[in-house]
Amino acid sequence: MKDAATTMDNHNLANAIAELVFARYKSCPAKCKPTVRPDGTREWTNLASVVVRTAEGKLVCASIATGVKAMPDNTVATAGGGILHDCHAEILAIRAFNRYLINECQKLDGDESYFSPCVVRNANTESRNFKRFRLGEKCQIYLLASEVPCGDASMEQIGAGTKEAWDSTLLERGRPLKGREYFSEIGQVRTKPGRSDAPESLSKSCTDKLCLRQFTSLLLTPTTLLMETDGMYLAALIVPESKLNRESFTRAFGRYGRLSRMLGLEDRRSYGFWPFEYWTYGWPRFEHSKECIDEDSSKPSNISLIYVANMEDVESIIKGRKMGAKASSISGASVVSRILLIHDAIPLAGRDVGLTPTMYSDLKRDPARQRQKDICRRALGNWWQTAEDNFVVLR
To answer: What letter does residue 136 receive in the DSSP assignment?
Structure first.
């Protein structure tokens, strides 16, 4: 149990992180943000940001993303690595954080004098799974979200004070629940999107994906080729003070919640299980949240914003690609798409380890990482796989 002083320190830090993130968001171009439609309807969205606190106490807003959409599952198999399947803010922010890390690795590789606030060259060549780079000493990583992540952590908030009929045969058939359906059935894997009339995506809820990150780290497949996993886990998930239901979070994410029966089986040599804390911020509020818009007729924005601290351009994403891009053009792929992340990671990793894969799926077969995924998925249950986004990496 934490003492009151520690709790207050965490709350003050969370407020400082929120102030930094929202100030940075405010400076982003208006074209990337929710707007007022021609008929007068106002738009809203959700925001998430990955912030790193350095050993010296400096806060680095590495990434910001907004979004509430997910692409249908039938688009994934033909995406060729160029379409963002899941455009919820939390997931895009983590993808953008990985883009930030890869960019830092590129700078360190190309300039011996370059100093990165978050990434350092790895001097520990005796490491069992040596990677060229690692997170800076004593850096801590935080994820700020303007809303409670969709999925199990938000069920009490969605269904407060209401009752519903429950079809228990859905779980007997092994089917994951879709979005908000049967919200009184807690502890379950859920998929996006929340609307019952939307095409099936099979993309798991942000709650479920953040659960998985406690086992596999925040690193995506391309970034695992370059960086050690040590330290690459969330220290805390930060949400608005009015929205934290600690009982829900403990069940959805915690060691003694729905994950409890699988703990102890994780591979601690490379990964382990690293649960994050739950913090809150009280001020400021996100200006484009549904709560701030406060209109019954408001609609969710179709646009996602992607900000990466070490890149000049802020991207506008719609239907998983850069706004205005041709459907099949590689120029329409986001900087956080699989194909562009792996395109930049391969040269940095390949020089040292002789990596010559031909397909993206070849890179995802790290046994330790796969074991971590399997442990988490078995604990959660009903984890249906999405279609595979496989494509040629190197010819």
So the answer is: P
Tell me the C-alpha distance between 192 and 154, whole Å. 13
The answer to whether 288 and 66 have CB atoms below 8 angstroms apart is yes
Q: What is the widest separation between alpha-carbon atoms in the chain?
A: 63
Minimal CA–CA distance to 177: which of 371, 395, 381, 390?
Answer: 381
Question: Do 234 and 148 form a contact (C-beta atoms < 8 A)?
Answer: no
The pLDDT tens digits for 75-98 are 888 889 999 999 999 999 999 999
pLDDT of residue 222: 95
Determine whether 336 is exposed, middle or buried from the number of CB atoms within 10 Å of its CB (0-12, 13-18, 19+).
Answer: buried
Pairwise CA distance, residues 281 & 51, whole Å: 14
Dihedral over alpha carbons 204, 207, 211, 212 (to 10 degrees): 20
Alpha-carbon span 270 to 168, nearest angstrom: 39
Q: Which one is catalytic: 19, 43, 90, 172? A: 90
Residue matched to tokens 């408001």: 298
Q: Count CA atoms within 13 Å of residue 235 on its CB side.
A: 14
Buried b (16+ CB within 10 A) or exposed e, 60-90: bbbbbbbbbbbbebebbeebbbbbbbbbbbb
Report in angstroms the alpha-carbon separations of 25 from 63, 74, 232, 299: 10, 33, 24, 20
3-state secondary structure of 344: helix
**What is the pTM (predicted TM-score) of this model?**
0.93
Q: Are 142 and 235 in contact (CB under 8 A)?
A: yes
Active-site residue, 164 included: no
Rounded to 5 degrees, φ, ψ at 350 are: -65, -30
Q: What is the pLDDT of residues 274-328, one digit of tens each?
A: 999 999 999 888 999 998 887 788 999 999 999 999 999 999 999 999 998 876 6
